[in-house]
Design brief:
2 copies of one chain form a homodimer. Chain A has 419 residues and is an alpha/beta fold. Chain A is built from 15 helices and 17 strands.
Chain lengths: 419, 419
């Protein structure tokens, strides 16, 4: 038994809207433990919709349609499905009354075209739409084939799924077994290097482990089929523990954790404060740290020292050092970190200075050269050189630089707390 | 002739990621005038990928794959396509060299699993990936059937599409009649208010004018079908001029223009410099301004004054003022703008102080209250109060605050230059 998602709408084929419905339904099916192996997008064209139904019926038992239920002539989903199964449409009185009531409520007049939305295939059940005028259908046109239709408007579809489809599918026996997933997040190791370390786990059947790349991080997804979340968690716990042990400090969190939230939690736990001194990131590290609600508990502020003059005046970086070593250097990164820490009186100071490009590179310091400085509560300073290369582009280089600053701090905070 | 988009990835079937690639490719195909009638999503499973190929071949002549080109065992797209067409894979030396060079540049070591990415079906051409390690292929496995593959990482796919696939497809005769679009960008006016002002233009057939909402801005898309860009531009010019005249200062730019790039260009033209003082945005305004390459010409830096202490020490905001008026006030916003301008010695100073939420709101100053201060070259200061409300959430409130800071500056720069 499996489901197939069929999204109907020429606007999807023109790229005018992002297909968020398929993501919503994919998650919703996973939550109920209903496997699905294919998604299809097709335009508002009866012949092509029928071709998609013929194919989907061969490979799935539950066909879930979104889109094409509206009142306009290009909304053809219901009548095309009925036609495919040689079934007549009948006007459903309850739906007519419901549409009329909704129009009356908002002071609008129901148009003849709205009557079209009340046409339901003979033998189908109405799938109520509490928030809009387009109901869907629940229909078994043949034994062992279930068709559900939803409007394309995401908010209406979500409400109908939650309030009608989920109870219906549970009553049919689905949702007894769920698919539960956790995403483990890593930094400081490449996708292929991590994959090689945990390659044995990729053969597991339940839970399963699969890698995928993210921006500035690597992820492993651990998924489990089980009767409940609690059982899934139990089955997954030893696998997750094993991965964490293998990855060591390269593992930084799971699910909604971000480098900024992990660093923030560590600072909060250790009752320590931080300030930042940023050159090439221009405020991006501070912005990342303050994404966290309540970050004022540990983040005091910083200096955006884009121009060298600002590095001298507000961060007290030695002019001599700047001219001898250059603004993009380990020594200046350290001076900036120490400078901001001392000027603002925080426990930690983190600095970033580099060449984000596209211009400004030299043979010695090519585009993508970034130095990160960290000053710790004992005023010990260190720096770290990153070579991001010139192919990542300015935005990604700046983003990765800020991530790297957070990650270095995370590692120091974790090591410090073990002392 | 038509194309089909086939997105490969179990993560799509689990609903873990939103399928933005299909939207991108749909628009890209429309721009070249290549029809496409179906999109398919399938998991990382060879049999099902093969089934999808068999179906797609029957209804399209150009199959465009995204996803499954990575180095790990579940990346199966290339080998499955080759297997479907009974074609052997060969290791491509140029790709091996390219991958090795990319690893060397970032100081990482190439792993054996990365060699897999260099396996190309015999007879296929490499579709270069300038930014990542996974190249795609351009392949005619049979007469009148073209296969293009791309990695699933959107940024890599976009670059490959623009730099390799588009020139290739144009050479094949596509894109002779093009659809040319420009996006006009507005700030300071709502979508429906703007729509009402230009409602007559929505009935045009070629060019067409359509509104859509963006994050922190409103957009009108003007699109034209024509034999060339030059002809399209000619047809569109009077319409665009009319819209600009109607919108006045609310029009800020088009296409890739951003508030930051427009402000940057104005500062560069007027040979003036700027610094920022940020509280609730935590560096986000500085980060936006420095997104522009070459922004060091006019952006000198700033102070992230998250904590009040920092407002006093680095920005010289009067402690009395802070305690009397509160950090979130027009008077403090003005003092911050003037403070940063004077401390850093720039022509302009822009400040932001507010309550981004979710906590910290009061009856008098609810969540979403943000003050923006601007100090001009003559040391005249002013402030502007924004009430973003509490329903937008922390991230969007911070983003809109930074946009508003840039927009106020833009209007002052435009007015000043007219004097």
């Amino acid at each position: 038994m499996s489901a197939e998602i069929i999204c109907v709408g020429t606007e999807l084929l023109l790229g005018e809207i992002l297909n968020s419905n398929s993501q919503y339904l994919a998650q919703a099916l996973a939550n109920l433990g209903i496997p699905h192996y294919y998604q299809t997008v097709v335009g508002d064209n009866p012949d092509r919709i029928k071709a998609a139904i013929a194919i989907a019926m061969e490979r799935a038992d539950i066909l879930i349609f979104t889109g094409g239920l509206g009142p306009t002539p290009d909304d053809l989903t219901t009548e095309t499905i009925a036609d495919f199964f040689d079934t007549a449409l009948v006007e459903n009185t309850a739906v007519i009354d419901d549409i009329a009531a909704k129009f009356a409520q908002t002071g609008r007049v129901m148009t003849p075209s709205n009557r079209k939305q009340a046409l339901i295939p003979v033998g189908a059940q109405v799938l109520d739409n509490p928030t809009g005028t387009a109901p869907g259908i629940i229909w078994h046109p043949r034994p062992n084939l279930l068709i559900l239709t939803f409007p394309g408007v995401p908010s209406e579809m979500h409400t109908m799924w939650e309030t009608v489809a989920v109870p219906y599918l549970k009553q049919q026996g689905w949702g007894q077994e769920i698919i539960y997933s956790r995403v483990l997040r890593f930094r400081g190791i490449g996708e292929s290097a991590l994959a090689e370390k945990v390659v044995d786990l990729f053969d597991l059947q339940n839970p399963t482990v699969a890698p995928y790349a993210g921006k500035g991080e690597v992820r492993l997804r651990v998924s489990c089929k089980a009767a409940s979340e609690a059982i899934a968690q139990q089955l997954m716990a030893p696998i997750i523990a094993k991965i964490q042990a293998i990855a060591g400090l390269d593992y930084f969190g799971q699910d909604d954790d971000t480098l900024a939230s992990v660093v923030g939690n560590l600072l909060r736990q250790q009752r320590q404060t931080i300030s930042v001194a940023e050159s090439c990131t221009g405020g991006g590290l501070g912005a990342m740290l303050t994404e966290q609600p309540g970050s004022s508990e540990y983040f005091w502020g910083g200096v955006i020292a884009y121009d060298n003059h600002v590095k001298e005046t507000l961060l007290r970086v030695d002019a001599q050092l700047l001219s001898n070593q250059g603004a993009v250097s380990g020594a200046v990164a350290e001076a900036m970190a120490l400078g901001v820490k001392n000027q603002l009186g925080t426990d930690w100071g983190v600095s970033i200075t580099g060449i984000a490009g596209p211009g400004g590179g030299t043979a010695e310091k090519p585009v993508g050269t970034v130095y990160i400085g960290i000053a710790d509560p004992q005023n010990a300073v260190s720096h770290h050189l990153c070579q991001f290369g010139d192919r990542r582009g300015r935005e990604l280089t700046r983003y990765l630089s800020a991530c790297q600053g957070l990650d270095l701090l995370r590692r120091q905070l974790l090591t410090a707390s073990e002392d």
